[in-house]
Amino acid sequence: MAEDEMSEKQLNEAIESLCVSKAEEFRLIGYEQVTGRDIWECVSQKYEKEGFPPLYQLVNDILSLKATQFMNYMTISAFRGSRF
C-alpha cells in the first residue's frame, strides 16, 4: 500500500467523522435527535441499487445533504416501518 493511500479502517473513520459532523450541523439548526448513523443510513440507502460510488462522490453526498432531503428520507422510512 502506498503512503498516500488510506487503510479501510482509516477510510471508515473518515466517513464516520463526516457523518457525525453533518449530524452536528443539523442539530445546530434544530434537528436535535439526528446522529451520524442516521446521516449514513440516509446517504447510503441510494447505494443499495447503484453500488458504492467513488470516494469523492460519497464525500459530496454527505456534505451536500440538505435537511429537507434528510427529513423526506426519515418520513418515508417511518411510513415503511423500517425506522422507529
* Tally of DSSP helical segments: 5
Order of helices and strands: HHHHH
Global shape: globular
> What is the structural class?
mainly alpha
- Strand elements, count: 0
Gap between N and C termini: 42 Å
Low-confidence sequence ranges: none
Overall pLDDT score: 90
Helix content: 55-70%
Percentage beta strand: under 5%
The largest pleated sheet is described as: none
Describe the structure.
The chain is mainly α. It has helices at residues 8-28, 36-44, 47-50, 55-63, 67-80. The longest helix has 21 residues, at 8-28. The protein is globular and about 40 Å long. The termini are far apart. The mean pLDDT is 90.
In short:
The chain is built from five helices and no strands.
Set out the fold topology.
Layout: H1 8-28, H2 36-44, H3 47-50, H4 55-63, H5 67-80
